[in-house]
Design a protein that fits this description.
The complex is a heterodimer of chains A (223) and B (73). Chain A is mainly alpha-helical. Chain A is built from six helices and no strands. The longest helix of chain A has 35 residues. Chain B has two domains: 30 residues; 37 residues. The chains are: A mainly alpha (223), B mainly alpha (73).
């Protein structure tokens, strides 16, 4: 996976397809509340899907590290966590831009906005924790344990709590289903761009992460 | 798999028909880049940005591969 290139080509093709066709595909008008901003669905929403996937990979390597404490597993876990957090930040900022024009102001104290901010702060604390420990083994072990804790905090903050209250986001109380992958509601024209978008943007995140991992391995070899 | 390919092919068909309908209306929109409210100009900008990003990623990737093969001197 580290040096294979077929998936990098796939990533390029998918992202380019989304960036071109995402603007050209005819979007459903509904009652014209969203107008063209529904196209953000191809850019803002995949950031969160990508974040979730990257952080899941990070979790897997954190657990792997606890079973088999090699520096490599630690590099994988932290690099995936870093890219995942980056995706989350990009998601929250793009969401603020969208919210400014759709809901009236960039920050609406929407339960999902608050939940996402809390989740990202928990992951920020992960990097603060790592930075505060000098012993390499201790740092890797403690951060692996914290990583598992941080990952499971994503579920209440992003998946459960926003659905228990009224939310501006789709999927809150009173509206059924899962925003984004609700098969019945999602127009097919959105779907043919959205699913490639999720795969493409996630692969882009994986690409950036593998570069980071390779750099860390090189540095470790050299020191 | 066939369904997905068919979906993509048919989706691009609608692009073709769009181009057909806009030709008949005001003469200004005959230019492809100026059709549909000049949205293709935005597409062009984004495509250039993404190609730039990908180019950068590829160059970093290549440098890393070179270092991994030859080692740091």
């Amino acid at each position: 996976m580290l040096r294979a290139y077929w998936w990098k080509i796939l990533c390029f093709v998918l992202v380019m397809y989304v960036c071109i066709f995402g603007f050209y595909v005819e979007v459903p008008r509904m009652d014209d509340r969203m107008q063209q901003t529904i196209r953000n669905f191809f850019f803002h929403v995949p950031m969160w899907f990508g974040m979730m996937i990257l952080l899941t990979v990070s979790l897997v390597y954190a657990i792997k590290y606890l079973g088999n404490p090699t520096p490599k597993n630690d590099f994988y876990a932290t690099s995936y966590a870093a890219t995942g957090t980056l995706f989350g930040f990009v998601g929250i900022v793009t969401g603020a831009v969208w919210a400014n024009y759709q809901w009236g102001q960039p920050w609406n104290n929407d339960p999902k906005q608050i939940g996402a901010a809390v989740a990202l702060l928990i992951y920020l604390a992960y990097f603060v924790l790592r930075g505060s420990l000098n012993d390499e083994e201790k740092r890797a072990r403690i951060s692996a344990v914290y990583n598992i804790f941080a990952f499971f905090m994503l579920f209440p903050t992003l998946w459960i709590l926003p659905r228990l209250t009224e939310s501006l986001h789709p999927g809150g109380q009173g509206s059924a289903g899962n925003p984004g992958i609700n098969g019945k509601d999602l127009d097919w024209r959105l779907r043919i761009v959205f699913y490639p978008a999720v795969i493409g943007w996630t692969l882009l995140g994986v690409w950036i992460t593998t570069l980071k991992i390779r750099l860390q391995i090189l540095i470790e070899k050299h020191s | 798999m066939k369904k997905i390919i068919a979906a993509i092919v048919f989706a691009f068909l609608s692009v073709y028909t769009n181009a057909q309908t806009s030709v008949g209306t005001p003469p200004v929109t005959t230019d492809l880049m100026r059709s549909n409210g000049k949205i293709l100009v935005v597409v062009a900008v984004i495509v250039i940005i993404m190609i730039g990003f990908f180019g950068y990623l590829i160059s970093v990737d290549k440098k890393l591969t070179k270092l991994e093969k030859e080692g740091i001197k």
